[in-house]
Write a structure and sequence with these properties.
The protein is an alpha+beta fold. It has 2 domains: 48 residues, no CATH class; 113 residues, no CATH class. The chain is 15% helix and 26% strand.
């Protein structure tokens, strides 16, 4: 009969097979614990859930009806047609300087210009739909009568699209008389607005 292996020898054989561990106090062999593996699985699942929660909504499509737009309030829309007006400035037009009371600018359509005024947001000054030729190389813009009612004491820009008189050359400087407020010159080929200051 072969001699029975001692405990240290059995423990060493089992450890080499990857199935046992050695107890700290007695050195006796015992089955390897599976708790570390289960722990790793639990930790991995928690990490996955946390990662999904931190990116909630990041991959939503713009067409997703639950997506909230970054700016839900769009800017003013101004149709490029004579007589159209809006409280505010059209896209691409720079804000007036603080001392400006009125101004004008060319539009993408050579037959139209923007006329901008500064005043009450509830009672804006609206230019008439067509400018007239004064015969001295100046086109004149008039204003419609304001509506009755209470007016706020704020100061905001309002823009009107005004048609130029027939025969105005688009490739020359354009002199515009803005009511009785003042006169501005729009250089040929420039889309930059020209402003009448507070001093006229």
């Amino acid at each position: 009969m072969a001699p029975r292996p001692t405990r240290p020898l059995r423990a060493a054989r089992a450890a080499a097979a990857g199935r046992t561990t050695v107890g700290p106090a007695t050195g006796a062999a015992r089955p390897a614990s599976r708790r570390p593996r289960r722990g790793l699985v639990v930790v991995g699942a928690v990490a996955l859930l946390v990662g999904c929660g931190s990116t909630h909504g990041a991959g939503r499509s713009p067409d997703d009806p639950t997506t909230v737009p970054a700016d839900p309030t769009p800017g003013p829309t101004l149709a490029l047609a004579a007589g159209s007006s809006v409280v505010g400035l059209p896209d691409g037009l720079a804000a007036p300087p603080a001392e400006a009371v009125a101004g004008a600018a060319r539009t993408p359509d050579d037959a139209l210009i923007y006329v901008i005024t500064s005043g009450s947001g509830t009672c804006p000054s609206i230019a008439g739909p067509r400018a007239t030729d004064r015969g001295d190389g100046t086109v004149a813009v008039t204003f419609t009568e304001p509506e009755d009612g209470p007016c706020t004491r704020d100061r905001v820009p309002a823009t009107t699209v005004v048609a130029l008189p027939d025969g105005v050359a688009p490739d020359s400087d354009l002199v515009v008389a803005i009511g009785d407020v003042g006169v501005v010159t729009l250089p040929a080929g420039s889309a930059a607005p020209a402003w009448v200051g507070a001093g006229g």
